[in-house]
Amino acid sequence: MNTDDANIVDDKACQLESWVKTTHTSLERWAIPGCNLGGEVEWSVGGNAQTDDGLGKTQFWVAQAKKRWVPVGEDTVGISTTLGAMVTRPALGDRPEDKDYYLNVPVTVPLGQDRFVHFNAGWVNHQTLGVNRPTWGVGGELPLTAKVIAIAETYGEAAMGTRYQVGLRMWLVPQRVQIDTTYGNRIGQPEHERWFTVGLRLLSPAFLP
């Protein structure tokens, strides 16, 4: 999900989030590992290799820190704050790198029986464009079985349109190995902008010193 939840990976543990996203004209391959070294902070560094018809190859690099202020509980609303940066190396060699800095505040509301609603409010600074814009997201999780979860979300950035995604998550190994698939598009846009994703998430037990 693009809409983040307020939780972080367990203390002294790590995770790897990876996915492939395909559209009518592009293919993206993402991998973002993250670890909790203590202090209720999850550190993540990762990137993307992307090919796009007519543009060639582009790379994205992401680094962020996510501080959890209030853990999500059965009757407790969780709150976190994320600070991060993204560097885009465009396919056209005569263009400079694009740099974006962002702030996001994920809030997770438990609804009972492992159902959750996530709210995001944030801000992004596009240095190359010289603009600042608010960002937002609303997403939900609904368990269908003990191992299968339905997900849906809508999110956006001011002046960039509203997007949505729907999909399923499945635990292959409970709390350790999860796969997911989603379908998404931008509201009011033609079908050629739609995308599909397939992802794999790996969670480790605590092992860090």
Give a verbal description of the structure.
The protein is built from no helices and twelve strands. With about 210 residues, it is mainly β.
Short description:
By secondary structure, this protein is an all-beta fold.
Q: What tags apply to this protein structure?
A:
single chain, 209 residues, mainly beta, 12-stranded antiparallel beta barrel, 0% helix, 68% strand, globular
Class of secondary structure makeup: mainly beta
- The overall average pLDDT, rounded, is 94
The outline comes out as globular
As a percent range, the share of helical residues equals: under 10%
Gyration radius from CA atoms, angstroms: 17 Å
Profile the largest sheet: 12 strands, antiparallel, barrel
Question: In terms of per-residue confidence, which ranges show pLDDT below 50 for 5 or more consecutive residues?
Answer: none
Distance between the termini: 30 Å
* Secondary structure tally, helices: 0
Overall number of strands: 12
Strand arrangement within the widest β-sheet reads 1-2-3-4-5-6-7-8-9-10-11-12
Give me the strand/helix succession: EEEEEEEEEEEE
**DSSP strand (E) fraction?**
over 45%
What is the topology?
Layout: E1 14-23, E2 26-38, E3 41-52, E4 56-70, E5 78-89, E6 98-112, E7 115-126, E8 131-143, E9 148-157, E10 162-173, E11 177-186, E12 195-203
Antiparallel strand pairs: 1-2, 1-12, 2-3, 3-4, 4-5, 5-6, 6-7, 7-8, 8-9, 9-10, 10-11, 11-12
